[in-house]
Amino acid sequence: MELENIFSDSKWEMMAYLSHESLSPSELAEKTGTSPANISTQLKLLEALDFIEQEKLHSSAKGKPRKKYHLKKQFAYMMVCSKSLAGKKLVKLDSQATPFFSVWLACEPSLAMALLKFFLVNESLSKEFKAVSLVSGRNEEVELFVVHEAPQSFRHEFTVDCNEKHYAIKLLAHTMEEVETGVVSKNEHFLGILRKSFVLSDKDGIMTRLKKGGK
């Protein structure tokens, strides 16, 4: 099957929802405004193609879902067309590779290049981030929200020269415990960051869970 058919609007919408949380067929039908029969067909296809997998629930209560679906793997679908190259490819992602693709969705090209350089130059540090998101990036001043086990162990301000621009990158770094406590207590510092930040990498679904307001 052609990749374009796999990523049709209906299938893509379902995978977008499943990227944030596990959902039952009925929940997906409600969110997408699609009939349960159509959802069931689409889910079977995506499962056969190994993009999603189901989790059986131990619930016999009437009206309660008996299974939910979630993404089985992370991936990027690239399409490139230039004067010297045309091609498309499905790329499997891990937590290390994810930021290198997500930056292109988060910001304009010059800032994306600066962030890529930051992640590469500081690879030994960035690979330890449990989650990282872009909070702001204006006038060469960048703020990244970072979840790290020991934020006190590294400096929080960096500079990156890229495309004849000088970027100042500030890390708003916190432990998982600090962030969870802040969200539960409705601390505006953390709530504001979660509202306006664009997730670049989220190893264990931390940001999705926190955006819902809990641990």
Give an overview of the whole structure.
The protein folds into 2 domains: 73 residues, Arc Repressor Mutant, subunit A (Orthogonal Bundle), CATH 1.10.10.10; 118 residues, 2-Layer Sandwich (Beta Polymerase, domain 2). The protein is globular, with a radius of gyration of 20 Å. Strand 7 and strand 8 form a beta hairpin. The chain is built from 10 helices and 9 strands. The model has no long low-confidence stretch (mean pLDDT 89). The protein has 215 residues and is of the alpha+beta class. A 5-stranded mixed beta sheet has the order 7-8-6-5-9, with helices on both faces. The chain starts with a helix and ends with a helix.
Short key terms for the protein model shown above:
two-stranded antiparallel sheet; Beta Polymerase, domain 2; Arc Repressor Mutant, subunit A; 2 domains; 215 residues; globular; alpha+beta; five-stranded mixed beta sheet
CATH architecture heading of the largest domain: 2-Layer Sandwich
Q: Would you tell me the overall average pLDDT?
A: 89
- How many structurally independent domains? 2
**How many whole angstroms does the radius of gyration measure?**
20 Å
**Helical segment tally?**
10
Which range does the strand content fall in?
A: 25-35%
CATH class of the largest domain: Alpha Beta
Order of helices and strands: HHHHEEEEHHHEEEEHHEH
Structural class: alpha+beta
Main beta sheet strand tally, sense and closure: 5 strands, mixed
| Euclidean distance between termini CA atoms | 40 Å
> Considering the protein shown, what is the CATH homologous superfamily of the largest domain?
Beta Polymerase, domain 2
Give the neighbour order of strands across the main sheet: 7-8-6-5-9
Characterize the overall form. globular
List low-confidence stretches: none
Strand elements, count: 9
